[in-house]
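cache lookup: miss for this entity combination. No prior model stored, computing from scratch. Input as submitted by user K.M.:
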Amino acid sequence: AQSVAQPEDQVNVAEGNPLTVKCTYSVSGNPYLFWYVQYPNRGLQFLLKYITGDNLVKGSYGFEAEFNKSQTSFHLKKPSALVSDSALYFCAVRDVERGYQKVTFGTGTKLQVIP
Amino acid sequence: DAGVTQSPTHLIKTRGQQVTLRCSPKSGHDTVSWYQQALGQGPQFIFQYYEEEERQRGNFPDRFSGHQFPNYSSELNVNALLLGDSALYLCASSLGGASGYTFGSGTRLTVV
């Protein structure tokens, strides 16, 4: 079965500092990996995805993520955090080779950017 | 270009009742997935529809059923509602498996 883990319930970072939100995954084959952001009482918004190719993926709002196959990780990063980045972030995975259609989400990490 | 539209936005039902939630996918998308998000949790996969067929199902009881129409819109039906069914129900549309989902804003279901 495919799964994803977000080990931190909350991450606090000062405005202007770099931020990292951690994610590790487990699949039988090759993964499709995604990051989404959720603001209060709203649906999820797509940030970026890794399908194949360059391990460093750039996405919306200045976010990027690095795919590391040996560590089965896909950490979300941003060089300089904004207060407006404060939200709930979800990592997600789809196992391509098992033929699964569903995307499995992690439990989420609350990012708090402190002014 | 309209995104994913869900209706209604909020709903209050009594235990034992039945509910139908509706979703119109983003223009050009042919696949609709439904997720349940309990408070403080990540979204849990209910099922996915493609070409009017249920393509994959998560670990939800048969009380949860769905339908996809020829115009790709979809419905989620829940019978015999339980208090534990209270959650945010999210519809996500996509085109193919490699694309990211586009989510609607969700339907907040409260069962009393």
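stored under new cache key. The first strand of chain B starts at residue 5 and ends at 7.
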